[in-house]
Amino acid sequence: MSNQSYTPDTAAADALEALHDRTLDVLAGFDTMVEKAEPEFLPLARRFQELHRRQSSEIAALLSVAGRHPGDDGTFMSTVNRAVVSLRAMFDKIDEDVLQQIQSGEQHVIDAFDEAIAQPQPPEVATKLSELRQELVRLLEEARAATS
After folding, report:
1. Is the dihedral of CA 9, 14, 17, 22 positive or negative?
2. Distance (Å, whole) CA 92 – CA 36
3. pTM
């Protein structure tokens, strides 16, 4: 994609911003999860963490090109996600049993991708968003297969 700015309609830019926030929110949970994960679950937690860190940067770049200034902290859900993982770690292991919660959290990100893709975006933005969404779906499928 070129570095030229484009002017998306407000709904398209808002959808990109919401996607970026949700990605940061989920990343916050994985940052804590990596700190507290059981050794056998750590590689998978790191893969999700790395995917969301990279994708949040790529979505931030799309936002910048769209004339928006992406934040670094996500929403209040970032704090909630950190707290939930920390509390769970106090009472239970952070292992493959958390996959159900991961899938639920990731569904919110997938929904945000779908919303952003549904908006009128330049073709290269829509293509990039579709690619990022598919990466996440593939990792979720690999996680399900690895833990079943």
Report:
1. negative
2. 10
3. 0.82
Tokens of 65: 């090109």
Say if residue 87 is exposed, middle or buried (CB neighbours under 10 Å; 0-12, 13-18, 19+).
exposed
- pLDDT for the residue 7: 54
Confirm if 136 and 109 have CB atoms less than 8 A apart. yes
* Structure confidence by residue, pLDDT tens digits, 92-108: 555 566 777 788 889 99
- How far, in Å, CA of 8 to CA of 25, rounded? 24
- For residues 3 and 100, the answer to whether their CB atoms sit within 8 Å is no
Q: Are 48 and 99 spatial neighbours (Cβ–Cβ below 8 Å)? A: no
